[in-house]
Amino acid sequence: MRNLLFIASLLLLASCSSNEYEAEDQLYACLEKKAQKEGFNLDNEVEKLESAFIKAGLLKSDSGEDKIAYFKKVIEKGQISLPHGSFDTYKNVQKVFFQWSDCKNGLDDELYQGSRIKRLQDAVNESIAKGTISPVAGAQALLDQLTAEDLEHPFFRTLTLVFLASMLEKDTSYIRSIPKKLKNVPPAPVVDPKDITTIAVNDSNRLTFNGEFINPDEITVQLVPILKQFEENDEQHIRIQVKQNTTYKLFAKIHSSIEAAHQEVLNYFSQIEHKKSFKQLTEEEQNELKKKHPARVVEGKPD
């Protein structure tokens, strides 16, 4: 009888241990299904994105310990970056990952309340409430709430590659340094003023588009017809002029809006030239279309 009780105890302990990440297991399984609906395998895209981070020297390896080192580097330098050529992969992973809140609705509430992701979310929400959310604050929250072992779980592995860039908000999804960190920005090229579309922010964090005040949500709509006129060998470009006190959220909103407008333009020309969406093109076709219909951006040094 004692032997039976002992075996039962071992099985119970093993069950508890195997379910240590039960909430995160369920969340990731849900995300995998969402990725399949988008037409790609989430594991493969995460692997591809992580490999790009390693190749670029941002991560030394795929280990949890090296992700910890990455967070510390973000805190030290006060900025984040994305490996060259990985933006499309990043957007795929980001688009799916931030549907985790939808997946959360399918979790048992008690299970979620005791999970690591709930503790992390609480820490991030606390930073937001204090007005301190930033890549640095996000990295610190990750260090405070997660271990190296946690970061090797598929859910947190994926989170590592997109969280600091996106900060849980659509309008902070563009991977850039905070404005005050920009240094040695080259001067804008001398071109005909009619070829320059200027997006500027004043000292009061109000946005202007070619000298006219606009709402940040209007940037994409304003840019689409302008970007349709950009050609490979002309000098048309978008000039961004911010201030030292420009908020990170507004700075990122400008860039994410430019990206959204460019994607809309690429889709427009893809339908005309290839009779299918930009996403359905081969990598070679996409690169050729981007070359023919660029979105040139010049940043003025912050005043």
Describe this structure in words.
By secondary structure, the protein is of the alpha/beta class. It folds into two domains: 22-169, no CATH class; 186-299, no CATH class. Helices cover 55% and strands 6% of the residues. It has a five-stranded mixed β-sheet with strand order 3-2-1-4-5, with helices on one face. The protein is globular, with a radius of gyration of 22 Å. The protein starts with a helix and ends with a strand.
In summary, what is this structure?
By secondary structure, the protein is of the alpha/beta class. It contains 13 helices and five strands.
Are there runs of 5+ residues with pLDDT below 50, and where?
4-17, 167-183
Query: Strand-residue fraction?
Result: 5-15%
What's the structural domain tally?
A: 2
- List the total number of helices: 13
Quaternary state of the chains: single chain
Report the sheet with the most strands, covering strand number, pairing sense and barrel closure: 5 strands, mixed
Name the strands of the widest sheet in spatial order.
3-2-1-4-5
One letter per element, helices H and strands E, the order comes to HHHHHHHHHHEEEHEHHE
* Shape call: globular
Bin the helical content. Answer: 55-70%
**Based on helices, strands and strand pairing, what is the structural class?**
alpha/beta
Distance between the termini: 79 Å
- Work out the radius of gyration: 22 Å
Mean pLDDT: 81
Number of beta-strand segments:
5
